[in-house]
Amino acid sequence: MKPLFQLTRSSMIWLLVSILMVMIPYVTVVPGWLFLLAVFTVGWRLMVHSGRWSFPHWSVRSALLSLVLVGLLFELRSGSVMVVTVGLLVAAFLLKLTEMYRRRDALVVLYVALLLIVCSFLFFQSIPMTLYSLLSLIVVTACLNTVYRSQQNTDIWRPLKRSAVLYTQALPMMLVLFLIFPRIGPLWQVDMNTGQSFTGLSDSMSPGDVSRLTRSADIAFRARFETALPPENIRYWRGLTYDRFDGRRWTRSEQQGIEQQSGVQSGLAARFNSLRDYRYEIVMEATGQRWRYGLDVPVSYPATVRRLADMTLQGQDPLMQRTQYQLVSRVAPQQDQLSAGRYDRYLQLPERGNEKARQLALQWASEQPDVKAFTAQMMTFFATRFRYTLEPPLLPGSDSVDQFLFQTRQGFCGHFASAGAFLLRAAGVPARVVGGYLGGELNPLDGALTVRQYEAHAWLEYWDRESQSWLRLDPTSVVAPLRLEQPAAQLFSSESSFLADAMLMRKGFLSGALLMQLRLRYEAINYGWHRWVLNFQDRQSDFLQQLLGGISVVKIVLLILITGGLVLLGVAGSLFIRRGPRQDPLVSALKRLDKRLLQLGLQRRSGEPPGQFFARMEQSFPSLSEEFAALSCCYEQISYAENSDPELLAQFRRLMSRCCSLIPQKKSL
Amino acid sequence: MRDQIQAVIKEVSSVLYGKQEEIKLALTCIFSRGHLLIEDLPGMGKTTLAHALAKVLGLEYQRLQFTSDMLPADILGVSIFDPSANRFQFHPGPVFTQVLLADEVNRTTPKTQSALLESMEEGRVSLDGQTHRLPEPFFVIATQNPVTQQGTFPLPESQLDRFLMRIELGYPDVRAERELLRGGDPRERLNSLPAVISAAQLEQISQACGAVNVSESILDYLQRLIAYSRQAPEFSFGISPRGALALLNASRSWAYIEGRDYVIPEDLQQLLGPVTGHRLRAAEDIGGFGANALVQQLLSQVDVVA
User: Residue B8 in contact with residue B57, Cβ under 8 Å?
Assistant: First the structure.
């Protein structure tokens, strides 16, 4: 039996560091009991290394394996497939430690470690995480290095330095590949819903929902305008509309219908108006939902997004990771010839309930037959008797609108929008509640607007028969006019529940100028990171287009081949140059002759001085003896004598070519 | 001057038949102002060569037979109290001469061998706190039996390194031996050998040898040889800088004797064995039995042009 492979001390140290570094990112991902397994296997491996224990018996290993499999099967019931798959990989990685008999086993462990580093990108893609992964990569490679070195090296840091140097050398190649390597769509996809929860709007709204959002300072999305920034009072970012009301909760009905917009889109986009139209790019955080945010009426949008009849945007799939898209929006009333079916849908109300509100609506409707006057009266009603607060009393009963309108009279955007839409519908005016965000904080460093969860907002839209269009109505604007003009952070800062979950963002912390600056800087970097690194595939085509002018598979392949070829040529060239200074013309001529004589088996022997060589040739080719004698003389003079005649070199060349041409092709024997 | 050199060779050849190459090597050594070690079995003509060289070059010489009971004072000299002058009087030893023929140098003990060290390297003798200069020029031509012979003390490396060259004579070829057998003992003619050149002429020749051109490509080749000897695993240790310098100087003299005023690779190759053979040691060779195989390896493995 072959002797067991003994890891060297430095190898063991680096292996431990590698395991630690590789496992840390998975703390929040894989089930916690895997870390118990890690402690167990690493501990056992250490005991083996110190010679106290032997490797676990096969029965122990089998038991461990079955336990892990059963555990992961249980996880499958609650968690996602992705987590369990990665968990399996982690478990395999850890279990392999207990049967590391040979160098090959150690290599397997380290290769799996590399795979795990890559897998962590499934869950995290931030800059710190990337840097961390790079560091892990260097450490694992250092460990790989120690495994290959059999002799004990006393310098622990040496492999790390080596590995760092390796990666530094690989950096240019990485950049080139990053820029030109074609991004091919995945052959198969897994459900990336890793069980993480998102903060943000949901597809139903009941009283109190928005206030939950004000506790969070997470970024909802960032918008970067190519055109001028829209004024603060029209920064209404529409996300989705709610058209069904069940007396308490607003929901969106499924049959929104996709607008046939082939002509509309191009027609509108063609008349780009710099006064009304805004062109911008949005980087949206993952929501787990299909809707995408945009200002008023999006007139131009990417092919991956559809525009629904209510002028909101919808992606093809739930948004599971940060994405970016470009939009052109028009700030104008939405033209909409409401069909009969849709007209009725926007008038839908529960059969009964909230009777007092209905009576109020009918009463107003009889007083003010005009819709504009009706809404004006409603706004006055809100403005004079209501108070805006993030901590309204609960509305427990089934007649929540009645309770709000006539008893508590305290609430925030959701309450007002909900009640307003109810009143309008009760009076026979089609209306809907819109969920989205209002505002956005300008980052002066990169000119992008950052919209945070606490800026979530709800307002309503009603259909104006006269202009055949939807008009925006925001009761909050009259109850709390400041909400439109000030950043939400200032307005809400007195409320205790505001940003209860985000310590750093709260008042006091936020006001520190330096901290603010740091935060803005970090966000700007993050934004760039996303735009230029994570989502480079969107830009790669532009980049390649600039580089190549028109993309085709052939061109890309050619580009890769040519670049790779050039790199290899460069490497070969540097190796060639490293052989030393340019060769002596004499020596190269001698080598040419040598090559010629190789076929005849008469080439110069190693260590044979040129003089002896030429003398030998004189004997081998009696017909050329004179030439070879002269060659010998010339060579000697040029190479070794002091101040040789420059004419000699020319003579040498002449003689050489003469000899080369006169040497018989084949041995004439 | 070259005629004189040819005359010297001819004269020496008249007592040592068929050894032209060896005679030239010995002359090379002397022209390079180096000490010569002749190693061979007894009766091969070592002493004859040494004797003849001293005679022909017109140098004052002393012959010293080394024995196992010899002491340093027997070589260097001794201070004896002179009662009449009431002081110590230094009596110079046989080392105070221009050519010291150290016969069978490895028959004496290392202690006595070492006594030669300073005189060979510095050209002077320090005794009883006094330094005595040796005459100019000063050559040691030593002969020794191979270390495989009984009753020998191998020369220490430091002592070996003092010798510029170590040459072997070998058996004479058939024709030379026939001549030898026919003509009787040539040693009888030793004493009648004329001095062909004077000490001043010897000095001139030495200077002319030093002026022989060494081209860059020769230096490249030399450095490749050195580098190879230091890297190849067969070598216990490589050629020292002193060894390299010795090889270069000897090559110059050889080229001069050959009638050239520049060194060619053949010169280096010719002298590689004599100059470095006793300075190299194979990794497996603990006894120091010679490095001919190493020299051959150097010659065949290191290419002349690169």
Answer: yes
Task: Give the residue from A450, A480, A502 where a domain finishes.
Answer: A502
Per the structure, the count of domains in chain A is: 3
Q: Which residues contact A564 (CB under 8 A, 6 or more apart)?
A: none
Give me the residue from A587, A612, A642 closest to B213, CB to CB.
A642
- Cβ distance B253 to B270 under 8 Å? no
A65 in a structural domain: yes
Q: Is residue A478 part of a domain?
A: yes
> What is the domain extent for residue A273?
204-347+432-502
The percentage of chain B sitting over the pLDDT mark of 90, rounded to a whole number, equals 13
Residue A594 belongs to a domain:
yes
Residues A313, A243, single domain; the answer is yes
Q: Does residue A87 lie within any of the structural domains?
A: yes
Q: A609 and A487, same structural domain? A: no
Could you tell me how many helices (H) and strands (E) chain A has, helices first?
24, 20
- Reported as a single tens digit per residue, the pLDDT across B136-184 is 888 888 888 877 677 778 888 788 888 999 888 888 889 888 888 887 7
Query: A624 and A486 share a domain?
Result: no
CB A479 within 8 A of CB A388: yes
- Assess whether A442 and A316 both reside in one domain: yes
Q: Provide the ipTM.
A: 0.81
Handedness of CA A404, A406, A409, A412 (dihedral sign): positive
Specify whether A402 is catalytic. Answer: no
Assess whether A457 carries a catalytic annotation: yes
User: What residues of chain B, 21 to 50, have a C-beta less than 8 Å from chain A?
Assistant: none
Same domain, A45 and A128: yes
Let me know if A325 is exposed, middle or buried by CB neighbors in 10 A (0-12, 13-18, 19+): buried
Among chain B residues, the shortest Cα distance to A584 is held by B306
Tell me the torsion sign for CA atoms A245, A246, A248, A253. negative
Please state the three-class secondary structure of B162-192 as a single string: HEEEEECCCCCCHHHHHHHHHHCCHHHHHHH
**Per-residue pLDDT reduced to its tens digit, A503-523:** 445 444 455 667 777 777 777
* Rounded CA separation A81/A87 (Å): 10
A90 and A211 housed in the same domain: no
Domain match, A324 and A261 both: yes
Rounded Cα distance between A371 and A424, Å, is: 9
Of A609, A641, A642, the CB nearest to B304: A609
A-chain residue closest to B262, CA distance: A641
Cβ–Cβ below 8 Å for A640 and B269: no
Q: Which residues of chain A have pLDDT under 70?
A: 1-5, 79, 150-154, 182-199, 207-215, 254-275, 484-513, 537-539, 541, 544, 547-551, 578-583, 644, 665-669
Model confidence at B223, pLDDT cuts 50, 70, 90, reads very high
Same domain, yes or no, for A236 and A308? yes
Question: Cβ(B171)–Cβ(B177) under 8 Å?
Answer: yes
Secondary element (H or E) of residue A326: strand A323-330
Residue B200 contacts A where some CB pair is shorter than 8 Å: no
Contact (CB, 8 A) for A544 and A180: yes
A209, A457, A530, A659: the active-site residue: A457
Report how far residue A442's alpha carbon sits from residue A567's, in angstroms, rounded to the nearest whole number: 44
To the nearest whole Å, the CA of B54 is away from the closest chain A CA by 33
Q: Does the distance separating the beta carbons of A639 and B217 come in below 8 Å?
A: yes
Q: Pick the closest to residue B214 from B253, B270, B164 (CA basis).
A: B253
Nearest to B218 by CA among A568, A417, A611: A611
Catalytic hit among A243, A310, A336, A474? A474
Cα-based distances in Å from B261 to A292, A637, B252, B253, B305: 92, 11, 8, 9, 20
CB contact under 8 A, A642 and B261: yes
Query: What are the tens digits of pLDDT across the range A377-414?
Result: 888 888 888 888 777 777 777 778 888 888 888 888 88
Q: Which of A502, A526, A552 corresponds to the end of one domain? A: A502
